[in-house]
Write a structure and sequence with these properties.
This protein folds into two domains: 2-129, Beta-Lactamase, CATH 3.30.450.20; 136-280, no CATH class. The longest helix has 40 residues, at 136-175. It contains ten helices and nine strands. By secondary structure, the protein is α+β, with helices and mostly antiparallel strands. 62% of the residues lie in helices and 14% in strands. The strands form two sheets. Strands 1, 3, 4, 6, 7, 8 and 9 form a seven-stranded antiparallel beta sheet that branches. Strand 7 and strand 8 (104-112) form a beta hairpin. Keywords: Membrane, Transmembrane, Transmembrane helix.
Amino acid sequence: MIQAIIIYKKNKENIERFLLDNISNNVTNELTDKHLSSFFKTFKSLQMLYVTDDNYQQSKAKLIRDKKDTAPLPIDRIVTFEKRVIKGGKYVSSPYVSISTGRTIITVIKKIEKNYLVMDFDLIDLLEELNYVTHGTFFIKTNKFFYATIGYGLYLLSAILILYSILTFGSYLLYYDSTLIEATFKSIVSITLGLAIFDLGKNLLEHEVIYRQEAEKGNSSRVFIKFLISIIVAISIEGLIFIFKIILSKEYSDMTYAFYLIAGVSMFIISLSIFSKLSRS
């Protein structure tokens, strides 16, 4: 979506001219439902339109593509207009996310005699209509499908890890088939990894599937850092388990491997610190 907004801003003047010229050339002073409905054929990207009087009161039902409006009338639209400065009887908004649909749209307002014609256009469909992008809607739906599959797959994997931690500790309590330290640390490692994977899946679904909001600057880096911290914690715990095993078994010759593991975690922490500093600058 960020790329779509960049394309829109780059071609904003031509897009606004296309919309306003076509509205002016096709509109009449009658503004009947039959006439207004024809705009859906003129603009494939048009999603909704309605008309208000010069006091910003909507007395006729708004027209929605492939849907019927059942909202009670009249509707006071003054809130819609008070945030917008209409110069020369026309206004084109910047792209924004619609509360009702969750899609990115632009709003066009055109004054017709003593009435205001308000129209909402889907940004991706508009860019497709003008050949600035191709197959944009298909691309977004395909991305959402794959992100959803991966996100819910991560949820399932995190649930399996947490279940494994519960079964591991439960097995120790019932059968004493391992030491308390080993069972405890294994459970902690599994829960920590499960939590990290769950958090990764949650952020993936939130930002790419459900809300499709523009990510805040640095947000992707913060999600990645949180995930890596969980991995570092899990590896550190595994290193402690390894050291305890060496101490209990008195196989001190294996202490070299434990040293390599702890050294690797230390390098991981240093690299993460550098990455975090660079991502903030």
